[in-house]
Design goal:
The complex is a heterodimer of chains A (473) and B (293). Chain A is an all-alpha fold and 473 residues long. Helices cover 73% and strands 0% of the residues of chain A. Chain B is of the alpha/beta class. Chain B contains 14 helices and five strands. In chain B, strands 2-1-3-4-5 form a five-stranded parallel beta sheet, with helices on both faces.
């Protein structure tokens, strides 16, 4: 079920009253049932995978907690292998077979290993990482196992964040599932505000920008290099609004229900360097990778060379997490390079003044520079193959003004620029104001803002119920 | 809970009233525009000669030149990507709201598959004409429903932005001044060519238009406007396509001007004339007494 579909509107209208009218186990049961309906709407057959993941981590988690340290290590290894095994099979099997075939062909041993027709289950990367963090945290002694299977299953399948995050850790969410939240006006207004901002980003901005981006990426040769550059910049905002829009809706819905989820995006395109970018972009994934991959690898504690290797490994695997394609690996690799280079040149930056006009100019240039380099990486992320990415890059390299065929796209171009401007204003506002706290204090100002947002969406939005980009990850 | 209900009621009321108010203002803006469809639905597009076509119709017929030469009122209702089925609906609305023309000229490439979604973009006029409303209800029921629920949504359209652009300026005076880039022209060397799809559904639409013209004693003329000669030569089935149109028309005949203009400097690209090209075309049509009744 898509957040931006009519059926979801019916679903949430039926669900929320039932949620607030129930208590305790009944509420958990309703939440879990609704979550399975939400997921099963796409393909009920894959509910089995969620059940398997739930049962596996529930039972392994409590067993790990009860057993001796030497057995624990074996069990946690087993848990990681099975979790990643499932993820690997559904997401990467064909990718690895294809890569193996290419390698074998290259050395003249064309084996022609057979591929399988595998459907990628929506959200598998998200709920696998979420359940894995539960088991890993028990192993590390950070949390104790959840005794109720019902509560644990709700934690795994909770519909607002099931298919595209944010990845919420057990230590944050499970304790909240013990609370019998009542309907709270303040939470409702704040949550609704965030939900509307999310819809604006998705329906208003991302889907509108997608019109031009899709056309240019489908046939870059038909557009002038300038238009291709514009499409690349548009894609940076499309993916940001698509994904952060989903997160905003998820966090807002949870907020209405009385649950607090950590923020997943914090105006990432205002970052002045790449470390900062990764503390602002897809925060739940980057912190997951930091805690369960980068730090266990040694983090930055084992010298400059090892730090660089750890950074690169983390970013490459982070790239691969997004999908079974070398384009994602290149995307991750480029970010790895950026982070390593940044670590090397950072000492030079410390000599610059941190106040005054020079500092402001430096900050602004850094923001633009980071944005442009990030946009460069998105070219690989958006392309279907490395060669397609190079077609785009070649087109850009022919730098020339607009061409006649671009004229047909002046409307989406104008509309896109206007929407990007609006989203930047919203982002800037949200970096300065905590809307979750601010809106409930001014319910009638909130009302006017909400009406404005809805009418702007009606006037500028795209209503084709396009799928969220991150569903495929 | 009472606080919440009060807020909800106020919210929905403000939303509804704002939508209707803003919708009204946008509608007034659209009505005041000199954009062709605003004029059509405002009843201000009456002319002796009505031209219908897609972007090739826009670029081939320059209304000020036509009016000067013919001494008659001309209205070019062509629009980028306009297809004959949508054009027929617009034509019906035109006849209902404007003075009847004595001649309708149709540029034939409207009979090829183009941009069917253009119908959605015409939603600013959903309640202005019977034809457009019915077409939207039939082809895009969701868009029609949303347009009824939210009046602001009606103006979420490229057509509306264009009508904003043409506030206080006449869209009939626009003509493409560009000249084809030689590099773009050379790209034709590696071009395999095209074949026009003979679409029986669209041919039926043309037939229906001819019938409508006969009923109202309006002269219908169909023309194939010029293509860049090198491009025209790449069209594999021009003769068959033309014959299919001729056969479907009961009385009319297609005038083939696909190669009437020879010099590249008269083209903006492979398929569109520029200003000087439209002049060359007009001269040859005048020579052939094409606009005489």
């Amino acid at each position: 079920m898509l957040f931006n579909s009519q059926v979801f509107l019916v679903f949430i209208t039926l669900f929320l009253p039932l949620f607030f009218l129930s208590r305790g186990q009944t509420r958990l049961l309703i939440s879990l049932g609704a979550s399975y309906v939400f997921y099963g709407w796409w393909d009920w057959r894959f509910l089995g995978l969620i059940w398997f993941s739930t049962l596996l981590n529930f039972f392994l988690g409590s067993t790990i907690f009860r057993t001796k340290p030497d057995t624990r290590k074996k069990l946690i290894t087993l848990a990681v292998v099975i979790n990643l095994g499932f993820l690997g099979f559904f997401k990467y099997f064909n990718f690895f077979i294809d890569t193996a075939n290419q390698l074998l062909n290259a050395i003249g041993m064309g084996a022609g290993l057979g591929m399988l027709e595998i459907i990628l289950p929506v959200g598998i990367s998200f709920y696998t990482f979420q359940t894995m963090s539960y088991t890993l945290d028990i192993y590390r002694g950070k949390i104790t196992p959840e005794p109720s299977l019902l509560r644990f299953a709700t934690f795994v399948a909770f519909f607002p964040q099931l298919v595209a995050g944010p990845i919420v850790r057990a230590e944050i969410f499970i304790p909240q599932l013990y609370r019998n939240n009542t309907f709270q006006w303040n939470r409702f207004i704040g949550g609704l505000g965030l939900v509307l901002v999310g819809y604006f980003k998705k329906v208003g901005v991302a889907d509108t920008l997608a019109i031009l981006v899709d056309r240019v990426y489908d046939s870059p040769g038909a557009f002038s290099p300038t238009m291709v550059i514009i499409a690349c910049v548009f894609y940076s905002f499309q993916i940001y609004c698509d994904f952060s829009g989903y997160s905003d809706i998820a966090i807002g819905l949870a907020r209405i229900m009385g649950y607090d989820f950590p923020e997943n995006f914090r105006s990432p395109y205002f970052s002045r360097n790449f470390s900062e970018f990764w503390t602002r972009w897809h925060i739940s994934l980057s912190s997951w990778l930091r805690d369960y991959l980068y730090i266990p690898l040694g983090g930055n504690r084992r010298g400059a060379l090892r730090t660089g290797v750890n950074l690169m490994l983390t970013m490459l695997l982070g790239g691969l997490w997004h999908g079974a394609n070398w384009t994602f690996v290149v995307w991750g690799g480029l970010h790895g390079i950026y982070l390593i280079v940044q670590r090397l040149i950072q000492p030079l930056g410390r000599q610059l003044p941190d106040r005054g006009i020079v500092s402001s100019v430096m900050n602004l240039s850094s923001i633009v520079f980071v944005f442009l380099l990030t946009t460069f990486t998105w070219i690989f992320f958006r392309s279907q193959s490395i060669s397609e990415a190079f077609v785009i890059l070649e087109r850009i390299a022919m730098f020339r003004g607009f061409s006649g065929s671009d004229l047909l796209f002046m409307f989406p171009l104008t509309k896109g620029c206007l929407l990007i401007f609006l989203v930047l204003i919203i982002d800037l506002t949200m970096t300065r104001v905590n809307i979750l706290a601010w809106l409930p204090l001014r319910p009638y100002t909130a009302l006017v803002l909400f009406v404005g947002l809805i009418l702007t969406m009606a006037f500028l939005g795209t209503f084709d119920s396009q799928q969220f980009i991150y569903f495929q990850f | 809970m009472r606080k919440c209900l009060t807020w909800g009621v106020v919210f929905l009321s403000v939303l509804f009233i704002s939508d209707r108010l803003l919708g009204y203002v946008l509608g007034e803006v659209s009505n005041k525009s000199s954009f062709r469809f605003s004029r059509l639905y405002g009843g201000d597009a009456g002319a002796d000669i009505l031209i219908l076509g897609n972007s090739r119709g826009v670029n081939s017929f320059y209304q000020p030149d036509l009016e000067n030469e013919l001494g008659k009122k001309v209205f070019n209702m062509s629009y980028n990507g306009l297809r004959i089925d949508i054009a027929r609906v617009l034509f019906e609305d035109y006849l209902a709201l404007n003075q009847k023309p004595s001649m309708v000229v149709i540029e034939a490439s409207m009979l090829t598959r183009a941009y069917p979604e253009l119908a959605k973009e015409l939603k600013p006029y959903v309640t202005s004409g019977n034809g457009i409303g019915s077409m939207l209800r039939e082809l895009y029921p969701d868009v029609y429903r949303y347009s009824m629920i939210s009046h602001v949504f009606r103006y979420n359209s490229e057509i509306f932005l264009r009508s904003l652009y043409y506030l206080g300026r006449d869209d009939q005076e626009w003509i493409n001044e560009g000249v084809i880039d030689p590099a773009h022209e050379r790209q034709l060397d590696g071009y395999r060519g095209i074949s026009f799809e003979i679409d029986s559904v669209l041919l039926e639409e043309l037939f229906a238009m001819e019938q409508r013209c006969l009923e109202d004693t309006i002269e219908l003329r169909v023309i194939i406007a010029p293509y860049l000669p090198a491009y025209a030569r790449k069209i594999g089935n021009m003769e068959t396509w033309k014959e299919a149109i001729d056969t479907r028309l009961r009385y009319g005949m297609v005038m083939d001007c696909s190669q009437c203009v020879e010099e590249s400097e008269n083209f903006a690209d492979w398929v569109h004339l520029n200003r000087s090209g439209s002049r060359v075309l007009l001269d040859s049509l005048l020579k052939a007494n094409y606009f005489d009744l």
